[in-house]
Amino acid sequence: MQWQNVVQRLRREARILHLAYKDPRTPWYAKWLAAGTLAYALSPIDLIPDFIPVLGHLDDMLILPVALWFIIKLIPSDVLTDCRVVADQVT
């Protein structure tokens, strides 16, 4: 897979999650978890500081994908389907 395809797919998924976050049918707890995950990703404070070799970045590589997977599971499937359609129309 080329990097360009990976980047396009990640942008699409981010757009879908943004649309789902703004959708009123998305439960409040999924929105809170999404906001907390974004805050953790952008925060300079980590569970394991980044200056520790390997482990510093390993926590980000484990926590963020698991949190995103969990957020997607909390969003109703009809909301995700509608957001995918909208995201594909915009592209």
Question: What's the arrangement of secondary structure elements?
Answer:
Elements lengths: L2 H20 L5 H15 L12 H20 L2 H14 L1
Helix pairs in contact: 1-4, 2-3
Descriptive report:
It is a single chain. By secondary structure, the chain is an all-alpha fold. Helices cover 76% and strands 0% of the residues. Helix 1 (3-22) crosses helix 4 (77-90) and helix 2 runs antiparallel to helix 3. The two termini are 20 Å apart.
Key features of this structure:
single chain, mainly alpha, globular
Describe the structure in brief.
The chain has 91 residues and is mainly alpha-helical. Helices cover 76% and strands 0% of the residues.
Structural class: mainly alpha
Distance between the termini: 20 Å
Query: How would you sum up the major sheet?
Result: none
Element order: H for helix, E for strand: HHHH
How many E-type strands?
0
Rounded to an integer, what's the Rg over CA atoms? 15 Å
- What's the mean pLDDT score? 88
> Residue ranges: pLDDT <50 for 5 or more in a row?
none
Helical segment count: 4
**Quaternary structure state of the chains depicted:** single chain
Describe the global form. globular
How much strand? under 5%
Q: What portion of residues is helical?
A: over 70%
